[in-house]
UniProtKB/TrEMBL annotation:
Signal peptide: none annotated. One of its GO terms (molecular function) is calcium-dependent phospholipid binding. It comes from Gossypium raimondii. It is a lipid-anchor. Pfam families: C2, Copine. This is C2 domain-containing protein. The keyword Isomerase does not apply. SUPFAM superfamilies: C2 domain (Calcium/lipid-binding domain, CaLB) (SSF49562), vWA-like (SSF53300). GO terms for biological process: cellular response to calcium ion; defense response.
């Protein structure tokens, strides 16, 4: 068993099945509504992909590789886009990854998938997987298939030979690089999530000079008999009576409340060879009964007796200290309940954008009517959000400029007013933006903290009045911010408000340093 992140510290962290690209079953409600509103009615289903591998190459000198799977989509035009990364598994040539990738399967479309397996170098063991630079990792091989190939298999599993790219080009007899197995499960929508606290008592010791370091792995059993891990708890050091942090399982993750689950208790070893302490097989419904009855379930350990394995019943027990179900409402549920989505925008007016009167400026207003990068971002995001805002009055700000006869302002009303910040509609934002270009002097530096705090005030005021509103702040910028810590503080302060922040980068700057903000925001470059 090697389902841990690559470093000892990371390997002891919990990994949830919710680390998939889409954790719950209703993530495409808004997309589906958009498609249907445009007359597009395809045959599609949500498919969850899970991954395991065997016989991977050992690229490390004194240990096995620390593998990670990266998933790519091959577009019709030949472009290859990365869409997902698993967690890193510790010291394993036969890893089973817990993180899942959810993809929309379209019957009428050939969907080409590319899978690459990397060995993550030791020096990057404390780096989040999404921040890893793949060119700095060693390739363990790659494989490809179509989604149609996968879902048409009787057990919805496909085992692919991993090959090295250079070998596949130079020779038809490529070196064996192991195999990658991809398993597909259809996602069925469920809004219910089980909140569970598990503990064990009287665990047997697996370490010679200390107590065990236990953790749990929860897996679902599918129709073909395959065991698919969906969740792993954190590791608790030297503890024979551990109580783990709460586990959250969406009913969709496990199939149904009555679907069988295998709960395995392992003793953590830094070499990746974790010892099985014991296991039980229970459904969510069974776990709920254990909680209500305040009873424990004895663990068992498959033991070889003669030529057969028998389940040896242990004194160790699994107990359920908490079991509760909550409903996770969807986006459409909130809309049906009367919630509105309110759009706000903040535009970068720093000098690095260039002189607005010159064609090479990111702020250049083309007389022909061609939109610049800022106008395109406003229009593309605004046209989506405007349908969910009843009065279509949008707070709009600028930052990083010097108004006429004034100091540099890091949050000024785009409409030029000193009393109110709202403009009417997307066209109102466009007009206020154009007007501001002729009434301010571009300056700097690039600071986000002020506009985030201003948006937070708007959201907080709305919350205090009981209004059913959720706010989305669009920040458009051409460069890396210089108040990173202040921005982090502002995001943390706003984290319990009905507010999301979308950062759009324009121009040719390197925005990778800002990816650290993506734990609190949505961030992507916008090509103008």
């Amino acid at each position: 068993m090697g389902n841990c992140c690559s470093d000892v510290g990371g390997g002891m962290a919990a990994v949830s099945g919710a680390t998939s690209s889409a954790a719950t079953g209703n993530q495409n409600d808004a997309v589906d509504m958009y498609l249907r509103s445009h007359g597009i009615h395809g045959l599609f289903s949500q498919i969850e992909l899970s991954f395991s591998a065997t016989s991977l190459r050992d690229r490390d000198v004194f240990s096995k590789s620390d593998p990670m799977v990266v998933v790519y989509i091959k577009e019709r035009d030949g472009a290859i886009n990365e869409v997902f990364r698993t967690e890193v598994v510790l010291n394993s040539s036969t890893p089973t990854w817990i993180a899942k990738y959810t993809i929309t399967y379209h019957f009428e479309v050939v969907q080409n998938l590319l899978f690459k397996v990397f060995d993550v170098d030791t020096q990057y063991h404390n780096v989040e997987v999404k921040m890893l630079k793949l060119e700095e990792q060693q390739s363990l091989g790659e494989a490809c298939c179509t989604l149609s190939e996968l879902v048409t298999k009787p057990n919805r599993s496909l085992t692919l030979d991993l090959i090295r790219r250079e070998e596949s080009v130079s020779s038809t007899h490529s070196q064996h690089c192991g195999k990658l197995t991809v398993h597909a499960e259809e996602c069925f929508s469920s809004k219910s999530t089980a909140d569970i606290i598990l503990r064990c008592i009287d665990l047997e010791s697996k370490d010679l000079f200390s107590k065990s370091d236990p953790f749990l792995v929860i897996s679902k059993l599918v129709e073909s008999g395959i065991s698919i891990p969906v969740c792993k708890t954190e590791v608790l050091k030297n503890d024979h009576n551990p109580t783990w942090k709460p586990v959250f399982l969406n009913i969709q993750q496990v199939g149904s409340k009555d679907s069988p689950l295998v709960i395995e208790c392992f003793n953590f070893n830094s070499n990746g060879k974790h010892d099985l302490i014991g296991k039980v097989q229970k459904s969510l419904a069974d776990l709920e009964k254990l909680h209500l009855g305040r009873e424990g379930e004895n663990l068992y350990l498959p033991t070889l007796v003669g030529h057969n394995y028998e389940n040896k019943i242990l004194n160790s027990k699994l107990l359920v200290d908490k079991f509760s179900e909550t409903v996770q409402h969807t986006f459409l549920d909130y809309l049906a309940g009367g919630f509105e989505l309110n759009f706000m925008v903040a535009i970068d007016f720093t000098a690095s954008n260039g002189n607005p009167r010159l064609p090479d400026s990111l702020h250049y207003i083309d007389p022909s009517g061609r939109l610049n990068a800022y106008q395109k971002a406003i229009y593309e995001v605004g046209k989506v959000l405007q349908f969910y805002d009843a009065d279509k009055r949008y707070p709009a700000w600028g930052f990083g400029a010097r108004p006429i006869d004034g100091p540099v302002s890091h949050c000024f009303n785009l409409n030029g007013s000193s009393n109110y910040c709202e403009v009417q509609g997307i066209q109102g934002i466009m007009m206020a933006y154009t007007s501001a270009l002729f009434n301010v002097s571009l300056a700097g530096p690039t600071l986000f903290g002020h506009v985030i705090n201003r948006a937070s005030v708007v959201a907080c005021d709305s919350l205090s009045t009981g209004a059913k509103k959720y706010f989305a702040l669009l920040i458009i910028t051409d460069g890396v911010i210089t108040d990173l810590q202040e921005t982090k503080d502002a995001l943390v302060k706003a984290s319990d408000l009905p507010l999301s922040i979308l950062i759009v980068g324009v121009g040719g700057a390197d925005f990778k340093e800002m990816e650290v903000l993506t734990t609190c925001t949505i961030s992507y470059p916008f090509e103008g």
